[in-house]
């Protein structure tokens, strides 16, 4: 089967590879669509980061480079391993793409399994990936979805879960009625975080340089206001819109220092700021401002027991994922039409989906 394989920095190859063996307790999935994530771009430009090297196997998967990429994907159940009796061939599914040690409790009783030692992701640390025609995944990480949801939209459930967990870290996933939220950066994760906040009842403002992404935030209905930080003072505007109070909560989705500084100014005293982005270097953080405003600064990574609630948001119609799909490409065009667009022309795209099999294009 065809797959996109990470060999090294700026070395991803589309090649034939052998399908994984179906083992007891696993599910074979024919991949329908796989999204290109910012993490994939970081691996391509600066990696290996999550991906193993040629010489150092990942501690849990045991795999070295090359590894198959892709962790935002949807598909159809093609084959069931021994002991899997609660799914059927033909079911539509998405995957919670974790690689976690066998000694870790991954049940709903544990809300920190995503923070366990050596945690990694399918499609980065090994165990196959969504940028291949099919994949074998342990049953625990496979989530059935309604066939009423398009499989293209379903590929965005994984990044939507990131947004859900971020909002949950702020304590607002169930009810954000009356809350004023500011999002720094309207890339895919920023927009999807906004979608979760709107579904929970918040008033949402996004700050974003790209006019296309600002318009996408407004047209999709996930933001009430979209500000251009080159034209307005975002903090002043947020205070005006919020009646002088400032934002109750803010989400940093860029890993850019000036954005974090802006959020610090724009939130009201006792507000929460959730850092969603992955920072590649230390922040020059204004600790004095945090103290004097009693700001609660929180980190968030991935998701934990969030997929069921996230899927319910989509199945119930509270979140519409269609507007965020801005491109669909074949696996062979991954670098030229996918990575190149998102690296060099990212203001023109939100989420680009890849069809490993070519079906649906």
UniProtKB/TrEMBL annotation:
Gene3D superfamilies reported in the protein's UniProt record: Medium-chain alcohol dehydrogenases, catalytic domain, NAD(P)-binding Rossmann-like Domain
Q: Please give the Gene Ontology molecular function terms for this protein.
A: oxidoreductase activity; zinc ion binding
Listed A to Z, the keywords are: Metal-binding, Oxidoreductase, Zinc
The cofactors it requires, by name, are: Zn(2+)
Domain called Enoyl reductase (ER): residue spans: 8-331
Q: Which residues form a coiled coil?
A: none
InterPro entries in the cross-refs: ADH-like_C (IPR013149), ADH-like_N (IPR013154), ADH_Zn_CS (IPR002328), ER (IPR020843), GroES-like_sf (IPR011032), NAD(P)-bd_dom_sf (IPR036291)
Q: What's this protein's family per the entry?
A: Belongs to the zinc-containing alcohol dehydrogenase family.
- This chain belongs to the protein called 2,3-butanediol dehydrogenase
Say which species the protein is native to: Corynebacterium alimapuense
* Higher taxonomy: Bacteria, Bacillati, Actinomycetota, Actinomycetes, Mycobacteriales
